[in-house]
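Deliverable D5.2: sample structural annotation.
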Amino acid sequence: MGKIPTPEEAYELVKQYNKEPFHLEHARTVSKVMGVLAREYDPERVDFWRTVGMLHDIDFELWPEQHCVKANELLREMDMDEGLIHAVVSHGWGICSDVEPELYMEKVLFAVDELTGLIGAAALMRPTGLEGMEAKSVSKKFKDKKFAAGCSRDVIRQGAEKMDVELNELFAMTLRAMQEPD
């Protein structure tokens, strides 16, 4: 059995490979959302969910063309836990990885990764940011294909299907998690 860093240790690892504030903030956001949702779905493993969320894009800034492939190599070199590696690599399923999300936690990561980007972009357009934002606002932005065009609607839809939730439910749960105080 390999290592499983704490979320804080995982953040230090992420900072070794990522310098852009956007990427660091994205790692923290996804980690936070994963932690909030873990309290509901897997309360015994909140830190594990947070760590996976933190590490999911560890390779993206330096190796965008090898995303998930390089993460697999890096995490193996660090002697990380196989379950952690599988979870990290599976979030790129169908895009840059052939590792399919199997566990519920992996399906959640697959779904919320892109969605946090869309919600974050929507928050930037509002004077109050995330405060007071509702799922119907997210739904409206989701339907506007020109808004945050880099956020894949197909991946978000597939994620909701894998989680067996309606899109609006996924929007609401992710938004609620992002709105929780740090």
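Annotation notes: The chain has one domain: 7-179. Residues 7-179 form one domain.
The annotation will be released with the project's public dataset once the embargo ends.
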